[in-house]
Specification:
Catalytic activity: Cleavage of a beta-linked Asp residue from the N-terminus of a polypeptide
Structural class: alpha+beta
Keywords: Autocatalytic cleavage, Signal
EC number: 3.4.19.5
Strand content: 15-25%
CATH superfamily: (Glycosyl)asparaginase
Organism: Hibiscus sabdariffa (roselle)
Protein name: beta-aspartyl-peptidase
Bound molecules: 2-acetamido-2-deoxy-beta-D-glucopyranose
Distance between the termini: 28 Å
Strand order of the largest sheet: 5-4-3-9-8-2-14-15
């Protein structure tokens, strides 16, 4: 284990079996298959159980995302997490059938905890695509889902109270006065003057707090793709959105083509990250369309992410792409991304970590990387070394028996031995 406070470089991580076969992180492909953003292992197991029994892709996605909602994966899926400025938790969810191109979605849904089931009701029992807010709740309850339910938890209320005490910082406002308290806010022009109002606003600069708002524990969305035994593709997402969002905010979660997209003819895509930015690029639509033009999943994923990074170099996000053969690959930017996979070749869910995760090709402190690995509950061998070559030598000379006991291997290089990325 690397000592704490030691800046390290994430050099590479491969699942052991891929290393042995000399493959990259991408898998050879097979279906049925379940793929999900993040190490939401229980959700993938639930979806796998359904699809393995012969349920169709749509049913399996609903099973998987429901499991995540019940477990409140990371506190950012299902009830009880991500309070908005008023302390309320709301739900965004999407379901898409790649066989028929039908979509059902709910956005900013209040008082109903079953996001993906509500999305399914919209898809299967209406001619619409999306319902929002209170009206989505009324529909969901009228169609048999439990509610009205208080979606707050003691944790979400506690988090919200602390945020209020901290003058409602950080928040998603910009170009407003007052900058440093809870409002009400007024628009300010770019010179920092209040628009149309002569009173002296706060002269403090606007704190760009976006980076402190957007992180792996704020924007986790489950975005899941399934290919069933018949080769049909479906995707679904569920999230309670960004913490401390402005009430009414809808992110990428319920937007088809942004957080997820599926087409039987091509494959599927799931996305997670800074949804406010990502939804401007429809990255999952892009991934699927690139694959349709013949790009392999790895390149399609990378291309979609780099289009966003070019315009928003500070964004954080990731996509995972699967083609209809079941070949999958992830691409990420600005953070350490993992996705989970289960297919007939695997005994259990595998968590894949992008080898170049993080800003500057993997520059991350050990403190930021370690919790992610423990969260994934994967048994990782860590090699602290001076060079990637040495890490490889260590791997080669390690007995198969020992290597087989790990889910992955992480090689970290001490900061002092590497020049900082420009
Ligand atoms: C909802 O639940 C939270 C946390 O348990 C509680 O603090 C809050 O008062 C409840 N709201 C209502 C309207 O009952």
């Amino acid at each position: 284990m690397a000592p704490t406070n030691m800046p390290v470089r994430l050099v590479f991580l491969l699942t052991f079996s891929s290393l042995v076969r000399g493959q990259g992180v991408e898998d050879s492909g097979k279906y049925p298959i379940v793929v999900s953003t993040w190490p939401f292992v229980e959700a993938v197991r639930a979806a796998w159980k359904a699809v393995d029994k012969g349920f169709d892709a749509v049913e399996a996605v609903v099973e998987g995302c429901s499991a995540c909602e019940e477990l409140r994966c990371d506190g950012t899926v299902g009830p009880g997490g991500s309070p908005d400025e008023n302390g309320e938790t709301t739900i965004d969810a999407l379901l898409m059938n790649g066989a028929t191109m039908e979509v059902g979605a709910v956005a900013a849904m209040r008082y109903v905890k079953d996001g993906i089931k509500a999305a399914k009701l919209v898809m299967q029992h209406t001619k619409h695509t999306m319902l929002v807010g209170d009206r989505a709740s009324v529909f969901a309850i009228s169609m048999g889902l439990p509610g009205p339910t208080n979606l707050s938890s003691s944790e979400s209320m506690e988090k919200w109270k602390k945020w209020k005490e901290n003058h409602c910082q950080p928040n998603f406002r910009k170009n407003v006065a007052p900058v440093d308290s809870c409002g009400p806010y007024e628009p300010k022009d770019s010179m920092g003057h209040n628009v149309g109002i002569c009173s002296a606003g706060s002269s403090m600069g606007i704190v760009d707090s976006r980076t402190s708002l957007v992180g792996p524990h704020n924007h986790d969305t489950i975005s899941m793709a399934v290919i069933d035994k018949m080769g049909h593709v479906a995707v679904g997402t569920s999230t309670n959105g960004a913490t401390f969002k402005i009430p009414g905010r809808v992110g990428d979660g319920p937007i088809a083509g942004s957080s997820a997209y599926a087409d039987d003819e091509v494959g599927a895509c799931g996305a997670t990250g800074d949804g406010d930015i990502m939804m401007r690029f429809l990255p999952c639509y892009q991934v699927v369309e690139s694959m349709r033009q013949g790009m392999e999943p790895k390149l399609a994923a990378r291309d979609a992410i780099s289009r966003i990074a070019k315009k928003f170099p500070d964004f954080m996000g990731a996509v995972v792409a699967i083609n209809k053969k079941g070949e999958h690959a992830g691409a990420c930017y600005g953070w350490t991304f993992q996705y989970s996979v289960r297919n007939p070749d695997m005994d259990d869910v595998k968590v894949f970590v992008h080898p170049l995760s993080g800003k500057g090709n993997g520059w991350r402190t050990w403190e930021t990387v370690a919790p992610i690995f423990s969260r994934a509950k994967i048994n990782t061998k860590v090699i602290v070394t001076q060079s990637a070559g040495h890490a490889f030598d260590v791997m080669i000379s390690t007995k198969d028996e020992e290597l087989n006991s790990y889910d992955g291997v992480l090689a970290v290089t001490q900061h002092s031995s590497i020049r900082s990325p420009a």
